[in-house]
Design brief:
By secondary structure, the chain is of the alpha/beta class. The chain has two domains: 254 residues, Rossmann fold (3-Layer(aba) Sandwich); 96 residues, Oxidized Rhodanese, domain 1, CATH 3.40.250. It is built from 15 helices and 14 strands. The strands form two sheets. The chain has a nine-stranded mixed β-sheet, sandwiched between helices. Helix 3 links the parallel strand 1 and strand 2. The longest helix has 20 residues. The chain is elongated, with a radius of gyration of 22 Å.
């Protein structure tokens, strides 16, 4: 089987993406992703990964295709009923991208084989419907030092998150122990097929971001999607000794029943915010004062090449966990990005690492350009 050519015209529409280019495509070509589950979520994840140019994908599932799977598990066709799902998935992947190395493993992912299966993996994606498997995957990913992208779907809602113990947060920080019951199941509660498509697509997107270093991963965040309303909500969490908070993905979104339906419990008393915000005008005054704060830019290098605030230190968000030691925890720090989303997460990360004074620039460099310095190029 021929190796993937990252310069192939097949990937031309990805290479032109801002911050992507040939380097990101080569990282995908050299990557190994382990996907747990070739069901509804895996049916969206596996094709997306192989089509995008991931070089090696291992699919782990001990189940066989049933007729009741076909409405949502689009990796499989009626002729596949009775076959192992990993065999069917391998054939579908080969038809889509013959250059991809797809390794089918017809077994249940458990504590006995987890370390071996993840030994040379760059990332693991859990799309199973077994909550106990997720805890095994979370523990094994922590031992391997790799991120876990996880998702679940039932009835009309889906959830997606990223855990990465080496970067400060694991699935056990969200739910320290497995629940007493198995939760919702497609067999008993049903499933809208498009929930699998949306949720699995988001999971694949998180995997691609993590592998390429492009964008802001859902690290320590959970997106809850409600198909009935078309709304989504976000749950932010950190290490288990800190509380969980919930916030809407958009300011005016009303509360979605998908949160309760998914089994998330949000404390009535929220944790005090360890960070604050500063508006561009106030920051400009501080920078002109006697004790200006340190400016930390957490965007990608290609963004900083377009525009930056003078005197900034550039550490992309994806590198911040490894490079936090380069910064002075006693300093007053203002973090900024493009629009203020990545920098808010970075500020929380620094606050959790013991930084005494961390603030987020409201609206990011885009607001700075609009309200303070119009010579800063907007993009």
């Amino acid at each position: 089987m021929a190796a993937i050519d990252p310069d192939s015209p097949r990937y031309a529409r990805q290479r032109v993406l801002p911050g992507w280019g040939g380097d990101a495509q080569r990282r995908l070509a050299g990557a190994h992703v382990v996907v747990l589950g070739a069901g509804g979520l895996g049916s969206a994840v596996v094709p997306a990964l192989v089509a995008a140019g991931v070089g090696r994908v291992t699919v782990v599932d001990d189940d066989r295709v049933e007729t009741t799977n076909l409405h949502r598990q689009t990796l499989h066709a009626p002729a596949d009923v009775g076959r192992t799902k990993v065999e069917s998935a391998a054939d579908a992947a080969a038809a889509l991208s013959p250059e991809t190395t797809l390794v089918p493993v017809a077994a249940r992912f458990d504590a006995g084989n987890a370390d071996e299966l993840l030994a040379d993996a760059d990332l693991v994606v859990d799309g199973t419907d077994d909550i106990l498997t997720r805890y095994v995957a979370d523990d094994a990913a922590a031992r391997a030092g790799i991120p876990l992208v996880w998702g679940s779907a039932a009835k009309f809602s889906g959830q997606v998150g990223v855990s990465w113990d080496a970067r400060g947060v694991s699935y056990r920080d969200l739910f320290p122990e497995p629940p007493a019951d198995a939760g919702l199941s497609c067999e008993v509660d049903g499933i809208l097929p498009t929930v699998c498509t949306v949720t699995g697509g988001m999971m694949a997107g998180e995997a691609l971001k993590l592998l390429t270093g492009v964008g802001e991963p859902l690290l320590g965040r959970v997106v809850v999607y409600d198909a009935l309303s078309g709304r989504s909500r976000e749950i932010v969490y950190r290490r288990a000794d800190l509380r969980v908070e919930e916030r809407p993905a958009e300011p005016d979104a009303s509360r979605s029943p998908a949160v309760e339906e998914a089994g998330f419990e949000t404390p009535a008393a929220r944790a005090p915010q360890p960070t604050g915000e500063v508006v561009p005008e106030a920051l400009a005054a501080e920078l002109d004062g006697d004790a200006p704060p340190m400016l930390l830019d957490v965007r990608e290098p290609w963004e900083a090449a377009i525009s930056a605030i003078a005197g900034s230190t550039l550490i992309p968000l994806g590198e911040l966990g490894d490079r936090v030691g380069e910064l002075d925890p006693a300093a007053s720090v203002v973090v900024y990005c493009h629009l203020g989303v990545r920098s808010e997460y970075a500020a929380r990360l620094l606050a959790g690492a013991g930084f005494r004074s961390v603030r987020n620039l409201a609206g990011g460099i885009d607001a700075w350009s609009r309200t303070v310095d119009s010579s800063v190029v907007r993009y």
